[in-house]
């Protein structure tokens, strides 16, 4: 099954997402800020990254930009989660290199469906 990194600074949301995806059989690793996520990305192989837009230390947007120029990591699939739901925010995220964007709040079922679509593509 797919190996996913979830970078989310809100503990309750991190637990909800982890539980929802692990119930579907996905292997999850978690980070609570952008710097921790970057370290895990540099030292592990993931099939998908789920990043929060507004994290401490490195934002999801900053992280996407770093990942897209990393040797051997530039093709990682990235799903950005954000409470910022303006069209300009979505455009900025996708222009930076994220593959998909989901606005918070979202249903866990919607997230599971989106993850499945991204991993099947």
In sequence order, what are the helices and strands, one letter per element?
EHEHEHEHEH
Shape: globular
Number of domains: 1
Q: Averaged pLDDT, please?
A: 93
Number of contiguous helices: 5
- Our measurement of the CA-to-CA distance between the termini, rounded to an integer number of angstroms, reads 15 Å
Say which CATH homologous superfamily is assigned: Response regulator
> How much beta, percentage-wise?
15-25%
Biggest pleated-sheet summary? 5 strands, parallel
- CATH topology name, in short, is Rossmann fold
What's the arrangement of strands in the largest beta sheet?
A: 2-1-3-4-5
User: What is the number of strand segments?
Assistant: 5
Modified residues (4-aspartylphosphate): 52
Protein name: Response regulator transcription factor
Keywords: Phosphoprotein
InterPro entries: Bact_response_regulator, CheY-like_superfamily, Sig_transdc_resp-reg_receiver
């Amino acid at each position: 099954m797919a190996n996913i990194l979830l970078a989310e600074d809100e503990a309750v949301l991190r637990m909800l997402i982890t539980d929802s995806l692990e119930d579907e059989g996905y292997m999850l690793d978690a980070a609570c800020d952008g710097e921790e996520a970057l370290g895990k990305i540099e030292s592990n192989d993931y099939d998908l990254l789920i990043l929060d837009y507004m994290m401490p230390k490195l934002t999801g947007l900053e992280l996407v930009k770093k990942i897209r120029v990393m040797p051997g990591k530039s093709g990682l699939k990235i799903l950005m989660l954000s409470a910022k739901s303006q069209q300009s925010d979505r455009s900025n995220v996708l222009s930076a290199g994220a593959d998909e964007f989901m606005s918070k709040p979202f249903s866990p079922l919607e997230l599971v469906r989106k993850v499945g679509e991204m991993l099947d593509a």
